[in-house]
Amino acid sequence: MKIAFLGLGRMGQGMAHLLVKAGYQLNVFDVFPDAAKSLVEAGATFMPTIAEAVADRDIVITMLPTDGILENVIAGSGGLLESMPAGSAHVIMGTHGIDMVRKATKLHSDADQIFVAAHVLGRPDLAAQGLLTIVPAGPTDTVESLQPVFDVLGKQTIVAGTDPQAASAVKIANNFVLGCAIEVMGEAMALVQKLGGDKNMFHQVLTDGLFGAPAYEVYGGMIANESWDSLGATAVIGLKDINLALAAGESAQMPLPSAAVFRDRLLGAIAKGDADLDWCVAAREQLRASGME
Length: 293
Hints:
By secondary structure, the chain is of the alpha/beta class. The chain has helices spanning 10-21, 37-42, 50-54, 67-75, 80-83, 98-110, 124-129, 140-145, 147-153, 164-194, 199-208, 214-224, 235-251, 257-271, 282-289; strands at residues 2-6, 25-29, 45-46, 59-62, 89-92, 114-121, 132-137, 154-157.
């Protein structure tokens, strides 16, 4: 199976390295060629254009940050519609909106290409270790044929169905829940701190009790220690993701009031210069609102 991997940011780097290590013939592309240096040293082949990267590939994996970039990679000059072989599969693993996923599904179908949404759950450190959770949806035979690739990249695969938008809905909803957990932990820890308690002690109470899950352990610890620079997703990326949730809710005629609260926290953090810090920096806004910073 010949694979192209497009998008070598913090998540993509680790994932691409795992594929090379597993022995796949891997072409890589990024708009910043320096991002490919370590991969080329490991055995991947850097291609200077998308067209060259995907021309003879069975699978094209994209790990891209925004819908606009994804649409250009698919439909722009020299993009996937023009350059991928008929019958090959485009697998998106970044976070994208429902409307974009619907559009991509149709564009690839019209070009006799296959489209799969296989969104990943986890931070960059887990991606580098092959410990992601992967949620794919697309044609059953294609998803099944991709399982060896998913086994390299993740610790488990949870199939969302045959419609790619179902996987995207799961990913968007997952990030929505995580954002709300960050918001609630930020509020609760600020309350404990302002009333004389210790945030790290409270974090232990949470994670030794009902909330002993990775999200509470990792993000709760970051909030308690004010480790805003322990980057997973930045505040800007978090804002993009929570806006995807709000857009999905609007398209389904569903209010998501908790999402709106977290969106406003992120906007406040970004306005104060925290755009490039981890999205848990939203909790810092509660400290500011409580007169503690």
